[in-house]
Amino acid sequence: MTDETTDTSVAPEEPEVPAEEAGAPGPEGVDETPDEMARVSAERDDYLDQLQRTRADFDNYRKRVERERPLLQDAGIRDVVGELLPVLDNLERALEALVAAGNEGASGIVAGVEMVRQQLGGLIAGRGVEEIPAHGAAFDPTVHEAVQSVPAPGHPAGTVVAVVQRGYRMNDNVIRPARVVVADGDGGAS
To answer: Which of 63, 67, 143, 155 is 20 to 30 A from 73 via CA?
Structure first.
């Protein structure tokens, strides 16, 4: 066994000096003088302010994106439907040509083309797209495009007497105006 000796001598006590007065480094080696504390406090406040502004900007951005999302979706649908409308027009022309030909062997083709036309029309209608009423309606330059003006006895001036190309709209936004023939008067009938 070994003798263990304990040191019972006590070091002389030194008076305690506050760290601020002594210039002793504080946590993380920061000098804790009043000027340094004020600078660090101001820097902290600046960072907090920047964080709060960034958070508010992000919240505003998120809300704006949520508001704009349906508008962008509608715009995308209008673009795609606008590109599909010529296909629908061509299907309708094909049907008219086949029916006008009157060939009995073409009845199966007519039925098939009609089914495709109905399917495409249903798809477009399912996206909220509707045909713009034109024939017999008063000419409205916001939804109709006049391609010709003709004398039309029995029709008041400004009435649509024929539809050259159907028009379509979605949520009151015109995708394509209806191309129409308009009566320029009642043909002299008074």
So the answer is: 143
